[in-house]
Backbone:
């Protein structure tokens, strides 16, 4: 871990947020969906507690042999989740997924202010219930049709977090798609899957409607990361993996390393930039953390309106295939700097 991790964490914790939605970037060449997790403040000793759907809790015998599969909703301290280099849940934990995310990919933290304590308790209770159902091999619960186990297209990270709010915390207005892979083709299931960025955008709107405050912290990927996940066959260093903003389901999924052009992706990137307060990075030479930049976040309504207008204009301009100056600034861009002319 960075030697000054505690000092930077203490600075960030001076702000009285209650929840932090953690949106991880994708690590594949196309418009990969990334990952979604949720941190509850002060639910771990001296730290927040992150609940994260376990990709390997799918009943695959090979996964049970080589990966951590004791829980469907893994719970680890946030500093371990972001910057840990060993796991508190054992040697079978997945580096870059269960812990040490920032060594493998960037993570966006949407911090939520003004959440009632009862709502946080309800979320923790829901995730505990999911784990109880997983261990009991339960099926057909109020939050999922079929056996309670991880499914990339059905009971995935976005659905478990969404259902935490919909069923656990009583967000009856939150849309969480019910995907049944037993009906229809895999293509149909994929088209109807819950996706991290789309779920995040729904949650931001739901929090704004409830009068909660919002800001964003960008935890940048450590660019010199030579670590590998020992479970991976190819042993590719994390620094050599793509670090892509997690795409919504759109034509951007067919792109490789090119610029995202879909209005929904642009809207999400611009909105998160507009809500940004801090950008945190690991300095390569010293492996120390620093606050790379800080700015005042826009109020949500203003941020969303500006992002929507810029995204619409920029997406249309991309379609003309001629150079133009982008109107929006995406999260991850140089602090307060203009976007390059395409």
Residues:
């Amino acid at each position: 871990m960075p030697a000054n991790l505690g000092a930077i964490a203490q600075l960030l914790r001076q702000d009285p947020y209650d929840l932090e939605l953690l949106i991880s970037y994708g690590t594949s060449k196309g418009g990969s969906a990334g990952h979604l997790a949720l941190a509850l403040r002060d639910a771990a000793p001296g730290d927040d507690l992150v609940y994260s759907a376990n990709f390997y809790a799918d009943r695959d015998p090979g996964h049970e042999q080589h990966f951590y599969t004791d829980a469907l909703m893994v719970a680890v301290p946030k500093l371990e989740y972001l910057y840990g280099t060993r796991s508190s849940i054992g040697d079978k934990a997945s580096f870059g997924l269960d812990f040490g995310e920032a060594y493998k990919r960037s993570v966006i933290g949407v911090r939520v202010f003004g959440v009632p304590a009862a709502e946080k308790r309800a979320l923790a209770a829901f995730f505990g219930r999911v784990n109880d159902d997983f261990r009991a091999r339960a099926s057909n619960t109020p939050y999922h049709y079929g056996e309670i186990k991880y499914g990339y297209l059905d009971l995935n990270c976005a659905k478990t977090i969404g259902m935490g709010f919909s069923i656990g915390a009583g967000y009856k207005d939150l849309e969480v798609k019910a995907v049944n892979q037993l009906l229809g083709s895999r293509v149909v299931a994929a088209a109807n899957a819950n996706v991290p960025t789309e779920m995040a955008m729904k949650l931001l709107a739901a929090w704004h409607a409830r009068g909660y405050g919002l800001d964003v912290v960008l935890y940048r990927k450590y660019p010199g990361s030579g670590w590998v996940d020992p479970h991976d066959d190819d042993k590719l260093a994390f620094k050599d993996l793509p670090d892509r903003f997690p795409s919504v389901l759109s034509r951007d999924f067919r792109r490789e390393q090119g610029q995202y052009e879909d209005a929904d992706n642009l809207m999400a990137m611009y909105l998160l930039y507009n809500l940004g307060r801090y950008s945190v990075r690991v300095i390569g030479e010293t492996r120390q953390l620093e606050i790379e930049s800080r700015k005042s976040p826009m109020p949500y309504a203003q941020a969303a309106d500006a992002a929507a207008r810029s995204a619409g204009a920029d997406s249309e301009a991309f379609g003309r295939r001629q150079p133009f100056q982008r109107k929006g600034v995406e999260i991850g861009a140089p602090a307060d700097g203009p976007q390059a002319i395409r």
About this structure: The two ends are 38 Å apart (CA to CA). Residues 5-320 form one domain. Strands lie at 19-24, 35-44, 47-53, 73-77, 107-113, 139-141, 144-147, 213-219, 276-282, 289-294.
